[in-house]
Amino acid sequence: MKPYELDIIHNQMNTIADIDNGSIAEEIGLEAGDQVLAINGKQILDVIDYRYSISNEEILLSIQKKDGELWDIEIEKDVEEDLGINFLSPLLDNQKQCTNNCIFCFIDQMPPGMRDSLYIKDDDSRLSFLQGNYITLTNVKEEDLKRIVEYKLSPINVSVHTTNPELRVKLLKNRFAGEILERISYLTKNRITVNAQIVAIPGINDGAELERTLEDLSNLYPNLSSVAVVPVGITKYRENLPTLNIFTKEEAKNVIDVVCQFSQKMKKMHGFGWVYPSDEFFLIAEEEIPESEFYEGYPQYENGVGLLRSFYDEAIEELENVPGGEEKGSVTLITSEYPSSCLKNLLNLLQKKYPNLNYDLKVITNSFFGNTVKVAGLLTAKDVLEQLKGGTYDGIIVPRVMFRQDKFITLDDMTLKDLEEKLSCPIYTVENNGASFIRKILEVGLNG
Ligand code: SF4
Questions:
Q1: DSSP per residue, 240-278
Q2: What is the reported pLDDT for 131?
Q3: For the whole model, what pTM was predicted?
Q4: Residue among 97, 98, 232 to mutate when testing ligand 1 (max atoms within 8 A of CB)
Q5: What is the mean pLDDT of residues 357-380?
Q6: For residue 100, which of 164, 188, 159 has the smallest C-alpha distance?
Q7: What is the pLDDT of residue 448?
Q8: Mean pLDDT computed over 182-201
Q9: Do 37 and 14 contact (CB within 8 A), yes or no?
Q10: Which of 125, 320, 330, 302 minimizes the C-alpha distance to 226?
Q11: pLDDT score for 11
């Protein structure tokens, strides 16, 4: 047995979980439980290595079948064609854990007793490339950076927070955190696209520090392709953690001013605004959400930049298409504080078209994490149940983001079915999309 075979058999990372229907893997007889030992004679280090190795017209796949038999199979295929193998461990390696101790870490502020997966602090460039996770680049060695470049792992999303080395060391509580500009520059110089995120904390990295960070990062444009500035999230679980404040209305306005002035400057120089405050800043500052042009194709949507604008515009477009009518109906919806005024506006516009459709929008306060947390994605079943207690409902529309992406389970581990039983009514989920929102209300309100 070759050395690589022993390695893999012992760590089981390369075990096949299932095979796609109609794929090459199915055609050659691979099945769940088999192990991929090597490709072209080389051990596979992780999923990136695997993808790189199969991007060839001819490959030699070395397999250990689950009965122990060893197969070497030559495959001819298109370069881009996938083999259709899904592994038990999607990364084909252990996840790299974060080595920071950020003073604003949200995971440190979670209540105890939640499911284990919610406490995982990953900081892995492979997950940044594959899933868009944000990484700090504090745990990467020179060879890791070289590998990102060699395998063209682009784009990479980086949590910068500040480019001031001393301040970054303090914020991340990591003595290796100061070299951020050098590390990002290495990537951008080598044509890796980087999206940056700045978690702003009042009195710490806003104001002049934020201007400095934007100035430094702007020198790396265009490969440093966009920047989101998001406010720090604070829960009620900060015992033994440094004291941090949330943004006041005035402080939020100042961040918007700094960011928008910088974006104007970038527009003049490059025709692209490049940096955006997240929606939360406009809500805290009680300012209008900008028009869609401001978001320039929404490059930082996943960071909460432009969600409300895009939701509202999608809903308005759908509203223009619905015929309107006199049908009677009623609908109950739940939401959190931040999106509530946007939803109220839309519901009032919908009522103009359907005057006999009544709505009851329940705005749920987040007592679970604390009332400073106002986004729908962090609502829990416990708060919903407590705040809807005593009412009778024909059905309730809830935001899909309250549930796990892959399963209908809330953050506090309640299934959609449990929720239906406890509220004695059907629960309908709605995606974070304005057109779906309008369609769901009509579907449930008029026919439910
Ligand atoms: S990088 Fe910082 S914020 Fe992210 S998980 Fe690690 S400690 Fe928490």
A1: TS----PPPHHHHHHHHHHHHHHHHHHHHHHS---EEE-
A2: 85
A3: 0.90
A4: 98
A5: 96
A6: 159
A7: 59
A8: 98
A9: yes
A10: 302
A11: 52
Are the beta carbons of 397 and 331 closer than 8 angstroms?
A: yes
How far is the centre of ligand 1, averaged over its atoms, from the C-alpha of 151 (Å)? 26
Q: What is the mean pLDDT of residues 247-252?
A: 98
Nearest to 432 by CA among 399, 407, 397, 408: 399
Per residue in 264-293, pLDDT (tens digit) is: 999 999 999 999 999 999 999 999 999 999
What is the Å distance from ligand 1's center to 105 Cα? 5
d(CA 362, CA 384): 9
Tell me if 229 sits within 8 A of 103, measured CB to CB: no
As for ligand 1, residues whose beta carbon falls within 6 Å of it are 98, 100-102, 105, 107, 121, 123, 136
DSSP 152-208: T---EEEE-S-S-HHHHHHHHT-TTGGGHHHHHHHHHHTT--EEEEEEE-TTTTSHH
Q: Whose CA is nearest to atom 8 of ligand 1?
A: 105
Poorest-confidence range of 5-19, 72-86, 389-403? 5-19
pLDDT greater than 50 at residue 3: no
Cα–Cα dist 45/11, whole Å: 11
For a mutational test of ligand 1's pocket, the pick from 95, 97, 123, i.e. the residue with the most ligand atoms closer than 8 A to its C-beta, is 123
- Return the ligand 1 atom nearest residue 136 CA: 1
Please choose from 95, 104, 105 the residue to mutate so as to test ligand 1's pocket, defined by most ligand atoms within 8 A of CB: 105
Is residue 193 over pLDDT 50?
yes
How many whole angstroms from 431 Cα to the centroid of ligand 1? 28
Cα-to-centroid distance, 79 and ligand 1 (Å):
37
Query: In angstroms, how far is CA 195 from the centroid of its own chain?
Result: 13
* Whether residue 7 has pLDDT greater than 70: no
State the sign of the Cα–Cα–Cα–Cα dihedral 150, 94, 134, 137.
Answer: negative
Among protein residues, the one with the nearest Cα to ligand 1's atom 3 is 105
Mean pLDDT, residues 387-396 taken together:
93
Which of 137, 162, 172 has the most ligand 1 atoms within 8 A of CB, as the residue to mutate?
172
Q: What is the per-residue pLDDT for 115?
A: 85
Ligand 1 atom 4, closest CA:
105
The two structure tokens encoding residue 319: 């509203």
Among protein residues, the one with the nearest Cα to ligand 1's atom 5 is 121
Residue-level pLDDT at 447: 75
DSSP string, 20-44: -TTSHHHHTT--TT-EEEEETTB--
